[in-house]
DNA sequence: AACGATTAGATCGTGTGCGATGTAAACCGG
DNA sequence: CCGGTTTACATCGCACACGATCTAATCGTT
């Protein structure tokens, strides 16, 4: 990937790992949309609900650390989930700076439904559990390398 | 990935291949930003320039097929690249419906610079050429499976 | 030649993402 | 206990990304 195979230009799209990730992310979005749309959810909203399913009463910052997003993205997203009745937001009594987010019963039920349909799609990927796990592990390792690079730049 | 390991909920974020892809895509964006920002480019703009580097005088549709985007995303992006002087857009004389996009000399020089810095980052990923190629191939296969799923749904 | 169907781009509205900045609460050294 | 710093979240502006829709050009059939 670091060196050119063709004559005219430095890098071709097809040799780039980042484009493979970029385009596959788009493909996942397109695949999930027809599943999530009838439920009234976007893909990032679904990820946030999954995070809350793992640990309820999280702060905005904790959710952000889990899904790699900041408050500037999460605050409007959470407000939409709240308006839809899927979550509740309230200031922490002990530290008024923090906002605690919790699933409503309706949100928990929705998450349950979304997970069920999602598991069907996992089967459609045509990967064995071992293949999927090996691939996932390699990708996450790459992600962590990238995050370390960015963190080192910021100091 | 298709079956639950935990007791309380269906799926955990950490077992999901789609979240690995999603979060790694974000990590790539964050890693490329400090490289591309000084050049006045966004990451999708860079991908489009790369596509034009491979084949100049492409139509909007051809670019879209290459980077998996539609005209609703590409038209404004191309207008910004045009306003910056990196590309030229003109209607095809033979078929006035089509718009031909070409790199200006300035755009070609910019692409050259961007590629150079990008190759440095490829080294930082700490993957051998063989590892990177194997990983890229597996991800692209997954992408193609997903795209086939979506295409079959549309008919 | 004529006209309905198809195709290529463009436009619009909504929802992310994120850098930069704002605001209020909590912390902390003196 | 007080003023400066840090922290947590919110706000704003810009740039994707995409479904839905529009317009203009081309094609196909008669």
Automatic annotation (TrEMBL), chains A, B:
Keyword set includes Transcription regulation: yes
Top-level taxon of origin: Bacteria
Keywords of the record: Cytoplasm, DNA-binding, Transcription, Transcription regulation
- Example GO molecular function: DNA binding
Q: Where in the cell is it found?
A: Cytoplasm
KW Glycoprotein (keyword) present: no
Q: What is this protein called?
A: DNA-binding MarR family transcriptional regulator
